Amino acid sequence: MRYGTDSDHPFDTDNRAWRRLGDVASEHFDVSTWTRDRDGRPVLLTLSDLRNGDMITLAVLDSLEIRDPHALLAVHTGGELGAHGPTSGATAARSHAATLALDGTTLAMTRAVPLHDPAATALPAACWVDLPPDRAAILRPALDDARTTVLVLLDRTVGRLAAVGPFPTHAAADAWQPDDGPGRATDRLIVPLHPVTLQEAQP
């Protein structure tokens, strides 16, 4: 449920990080959620260690939901391809390009791309983004370390790509397969997904 009347601290109980926190915490702690009387919005979370009685209470301030997930693909001069995100929308993804340009000297080009949800195996036409064929011909995954990855389906002949993710591991990305269609005949590049700041993730 979205609690949006508090503009300074909006919160959504359907937030995926909030739900995952609840699932993980309940496996190790006794969890108590304190809610606001007037509308039931969660405001505090108490975690109690049943083995020794220790507890900690966390304030629930706000949440951010990525409604239109995008990533910024970064192509470097040697053909290395990395990803940055996810962000909420293409505008937020493109705005991160200036930061990348300032941080290094090998950036050749960037592309904001939709991040297709791995839960769906059908790739819509809107997922595909054009890329100059000369760049498409030399792309290879960057070797940077990252906690999450993106699967880039690359059609080198036509010069276009689609991005699927995020995935928690390289193996999970490698196991994903699209339905029959153009995604089946592409090269598969599993690239590191580098997180962006909270401010950069929003449009």
Question: What structural keywords apply?
Answer:
elongated, six-stranded mixed barrel, 203 residues, alpha+beta, 2 domains, 19% helix, 13 strands, three-stranded antiparallel beta sheet
Folded structure, characterized:
The longest helix is centred in the N-terminal third of the chain and has 11 residues, at 16-26. Helices cover 19% and strands 38% of the residues. The chain has two domains: 2-59, no CATH class; 69-201, no CATH class. The radius of gyration is 20 Å and the shape is elongated. The chain has a six-stranded mixed beta barrel. The chain has helices at 16-26, 90-95, 97-103, 133-136, 170-175, 198-201; strands spanning 2-3, 11-12, 30-35, 42-48, 55-59, 69-76, 80-88, 107-116, 129-130, 140-141, 148-155, 160-167, 187-194. It is of the alpha+beta class and 203 residues long. The two termini are 22 Å apart. A hairpin with a 6-residue loop joins strand 4 and strand 5 (55-59).
